[in-house]
Specification:
Structural class: alpha/beta
Helix content: 25-40%
Strand content: 25-35%
Number of strands: 7
Shape: globular
Oligomer: single chain
Number of domains: 1
C-alpha cells in the first residue's frame, strides 16, 4: 500500500481538500464502498473507492487523533488497499500515526495555508488537484 498524506495545522482545510479529492475520484467513475462519517467532526469521513485506474483507494480525513489514524492505516493495509489518502494534523508529535505511515511508501503533501477567506476554496481545489494527479 502507498499513502498520500495531506499534512498541516488544524483547521486549515485538510478535511475539505480530502473531500474534494474524493469527489474527483468518484466523478471519474470511482465506486464508493460505503462512505461513513467518523470522529467528532461531522465533516470527517472514511471510505474505500474502487474502479478508478483499477485501484482500491482508501480515504480517511480525520487526522487529529494519532491512534485512530494509525488504526486506519493498519485497517486499510489489511483490506489490501493499493492507496490510502489521508489527513494528518501537525499539532503534537503524532508518534503512532507517523510510525504506521512510515511502514509504507508515503508522500507527504503540505497543506497550503491561505489567510484570505475568499481564496481558501481555490487553494483547497489546487491542493486537491495536486493529490488527484498523484493517484
Amino acid at each position: 500500500m502507498e499513502i498520500i498524506v495531506l499534512e498541516g495545522l488544524p483547521n486549515k482545510g485538510k478535511t475539505e481538500t480530502i473531500g474534494i479529492v474524493y469527489d474527483l475520484v468518484i466523478n471519474a467513475k470511482g465506486v464508493s464502498q460505503g462512505k461513513s462519517q467518523i470522529g467528532k467532526d461531522p465533516r470527517d469521513f472514511e471510505d474505500i473507492v474502487t474502479g478508478y485506474k483499477s485501484k482500491k483507494i482508501a480515504f480517511y480525513s480525520a487526522g487529529d487523533q494519532s491512534n485512530f489514524l494509525a488504526n486506519a492505516v493498519r485497517k486499510y493495509a489489511a483490506a489490501k488497499c493499493d492507496l490510502l489518502i489521508c489527513a494528518l494534523s501537525l499539532n503534537g508529535r503524532k508518534v503512532n500515526a507517523n510510525k504506521a505511515i512510515n511502514k509504507y511508501v508515503n508522500t507527504r503533501v503540505p497543506k497550503t495555508v491561505e489567510s484570505n477567506p475568499k481564496l481558501r476554496t481555490q487553494v483547497n481545489n489546487s491542493d486537491a488537484q495536486r493529490i488527484f494527479t498523484m493517484i
